[in-house]
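May I ask for a single protein's sequence together with how it folds?
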Amino acid sequence: MMSNIISIPNSLSTNSIIPLLKQNNHENEQNLTLRKRRASPRTILMAEISRRLLKRKVLYNQLYKISIIMCFLGLFGIILMIINNEMIFLNISNKKLNICWFIKLLITITTIILVGFVFYYRRLDLDLYAINNSLNHWRVGLTTTKICLTLFEALICLIHPISLTKPFITNIQNTTKFNSTSQNQITLDVALGLPMFARLYLICRFMMFNSHLVRDAFSQSLGSLNQVSVNFHFLLKTYLQQWPTRCLFIFCILLFLISSWSLRACNYKSTIVQISILDAMWLFIVTFSTVGYGDLTPTTFCGRTVAAITAMIGVLSTALLISVLA
């Protein structure tokens, strides 16, 4: 008997098969990934939403930090302005009054920094507006109204007592002599210092960014779904509904302090000297309560303007207090 031996040729070795299998698996994984990306636009949408939420959180943190710096610079400038005018009111010696020049120079420096932060804040606010409204670029949200508001805010922060060209008191003495010509006129430092109280709006912005309603992502998302902007106006209405008496008390205290010093800066006695702060407080009380005893009256146009505004706010505050208590 003859035995037939059949030999099977080794056409492919094991070493050549393994790389082919790995290549096929890699191609299959790539094809599967491409199919998933093409088949699920929801994944792309969720990734875009996550990116926008992360950028929105970063912008909120930057705006929060800038609002703190702006509030500090605004209040610091107001305090320096009051110190500068009080030194002039008290008729300190000429050597000590040289400090007024350096104080006004410091006010100018802080004002320039504050105005720069105003534009930077508005720039970040436009980025946030673009994120919230799904805009491709911040320039799309730049309207004429926002440009006017930015310029108006910069103008409010820009007004301040101007420092003199020389660190001497001769020009300051001329401004004090300017008062002796007429009781109806005030110094330039007072005229440029009183509008600086408008910087107190920065406190409102600071309160807004420190509120839990603004910093909470759930409140912001809920407001966006209901087309309600959670801003300071919304925050003010919420606080007035929750704590009406407390809000009215804080407002009256701030108005009392600001108006009392303004009446002191704008009014003079018969000897062309500013009235005392106690007399100014008394004048505010009788004007705010619309009693008007007549023992003290405003002597300048500036003082009459402040007294008129105080009387109108006093009438509105009394009506608001009656409605709250009722």
Remarks:
- The longest helix spans residues 41-89.
- Residues 3 and 176 are 134 Å apart (CA to CA).
